[in-house]
Design a protein that fits this description.
Blueprint: H1 2-12, E1 38-43, H2 44-49, H3 51-58, H4 62-75, H5 79-82, E2 83-90, E3 99-104, H6 108-116, E4 122-126, E5 129-135, E6 143-150, E7 153-157, H7 160-170, H8 177-180, E8 194-198, H9 211-214, E9 216-226, E10 229-238, H10 242-260, H11 268-271, E11 272-277, E12 280-287, H12 289-305
Antiparallel strand pairs: 1-2, 1-8, 2-3, 3-7, 4-5, 5-6, 6-7, 8-9, 9-10, 10-12, 11-12
Length: 306
């Protein structure tokens, strides 16, 4: 999977910003194929507009900033400015079924010229769109495929048949998560910057040693920023009613232990709301960014203790 991500990053470096139009980075269930077993989404518009984005940009030193400017001059691309959203999803755990949906604004002629000049380039037509393929050592079969669905969106993946199905879904011609309701986000709440979900029962080839994780049917994670505060949400679904109750007790115990041992800041346990329904555990919290970073470091220390 790391190799595929590297390939996606390389392919994104072929993009260029062009002016005009409203830009949004929200997760779109209607663009993810119905058979997806997992997804990971990053809303870069939300990220760049809040405190988290400001802090990330503040961490970039002058040398790195000069390199980014030089990078942009060479290939007309700056990921901090030019990308709006990236969604990764797959129908299985391995990289073979993975697809990347990338939203931004692209210089179509420049992008086409660069792709057609790539090693091993071939082009085929599907549903009125051109699918480009080129050699890439980072993918399982040594090939990466891409399709410019519109001047604001490209689809990338290592399997051409999977990519065709993804193109159909984005274009509205295939069933999507919006049709099935699978891997759905909980209703309500502010839109997250990053969200992820997995139907663990569908990932039979995923090597999970933890008996605790093996009991989960699905897992949903989300984090973002609202009114100057950072929020996080976790929803776990299982096949029985007893397990969520045990999970809730375990989570409450870890938070209480962390606060009592001064590994977590005062009030951390009360900042997390835990709810249990039939077959489901939900946990959510909202706090200042500095407090969240301190809490994450404390939880890391606690897990290392056990």
């Amino acid at each position: 999977m790391k190799g595929l991500i590297a390939s996606v990053v390389t392919a994104l470096s072929l993009t260029a910003l062009a002016p005009g139009g409203e830009r949004g980075g929200e997760f779109r269930q209607s663009e993810v194929a119905a058979g997806a077993a997992w997804f990971l989404h990053l809303d870069l518009v939300q990220l760049k507009s809040g405190k988290i984005g400001e802090q990330l940009m503040a961490e970039i030193d002058e040398d790195a900033e000069r390199k980014i400017r030089a990078f942009k001059r060479m290939i007309s691309f700056n990921p901090f400015e030019d990308l709006d959203a990236v969604t990764l999803y797959g129908t299985a755990a391995g990289p073979e079924s993975a697809v990347a949906l990338v939203r931004g604004v692209f210089d179509v002629p420049h992008l086409t010229d660069l792709v057609t000049a790539a090693d091993g380039h071939e082009a085929t037509e599907h549903a009125g769109k051109v699918i480009h393929g080129w050699s890439d050592a980072n993918t399982p079969a040594g090939r990466l495929f891409g399709c410019l669905v519109s001047d604001r969106q490209i689809v990338l993946g290592p399997d051409v048949e999977v990519l065709k199905a993804a193109v159909d879904t984005v274009a509205g011609g295939g069933d999507s998560l919006a049709d099935t309701g699978a891997l759905g986000a909980p209703a309500g709440g502010a839109p997250p910057i990053v969200s992820a979900a997995a139907g663990l029962s569908a990932l039979a080839d995923l090597d999970i040693e933890s008996a605790f994780v093996q009991q989960m049917r699905s897992l949903y994670l989300a984090a973002g920023e609202s009114e100057g505060k950072v929020f996080a949400r976790v929803v776990v679904e299982v096949d029985d009613e007893r397990t969520p109750k045990l999970m809730a007790k375990m989570l409450a115990g870890v938070l209480a232990f962390g606060e009592a041992s001064d590994k977590l800041p005062e009030g951390a346990a009360d900042a997390v709301a835990i709810e249990v329904e039939a077959g489901k555990l939900s946990a959510s919290g909202e706090m200042d960014l500095d407090l969240l970073l301190e809490m994450m470091q404390g939880l890391k220390e606690i897990t290392e203790t056990f």
